[in-house]
Design goal:
It is built from 8 helices and no strands. The protein has 153 residues and is an all-alpha fold.
């Protein structure tokens, strides 16, 4: 073992792998609540989610927020997430905004510019994070994440 040299720098693929894994994890977290359908009124859905433990409520509310995003806009969904936080139904709307961003980029057929343009500030900008996470998970190979991010930023 040579103690005088530095270890080699990790490859782009080694660096990109955890980023993709995080993006996939966020997508999975966002879709855990998809089983709950919105066949009831929004009020009924909110009441049902209120019965869930606090840590499960964002997943329970995911279909509700996705529906607002698709039928109205990401901005309307962020406004609703902020109301849910103020009401105490959820303790933080950042992860809810990830769900909104994921639905928003799908709504805009993975056009990042259109999805970003329709996200709004709030919830610590989670909508933008959701857009990027869903886009990377769906459209960018793990080895290409670094070069892709360099072109976006």
């Amino acid at each position: 073992m040579n103690h005088g040299t530095r270890p080699p720098k990790p490859s782009a693929e080694v660096i990109a792998k955890p980023i993709i894994q995080l993006a996939v994890l966020l997508v999975i977290i966002g879709f855990l609540g998809v089983v709950v359908k919105l066949d009831a009124s929004p009020e009924d859905h909110l009441l049902r989610c209120r019965k869930e433990p606090l840590y499960r409520r964002t997943a329970c509310l995911a279909p509700f927020l996705e529906e607002i995003t698709i039928k109205q806009s990401a901005a309307a969904a962020i406004s609703e997430a902020l109301k849910l936080t103020t009401s105490g139904l959820i303790d933080d709307c950042h992860l809810a905004a990830h769900v909104i961003g994921e639905a928003n980029v799908q709504k805009h057929h993975y056009d990042i510019g259109a999805a970003f343009a329709t996200c709004r500030l709030g919830c610590r900008d989670g909508c933008f994070h959701g857009v990027m996470g869903a886009y990377l998970a769906e459209r960018v190979a793990p080895a290409e994440v670094g070069p892709f991010i360099a072109t976006v930023c």
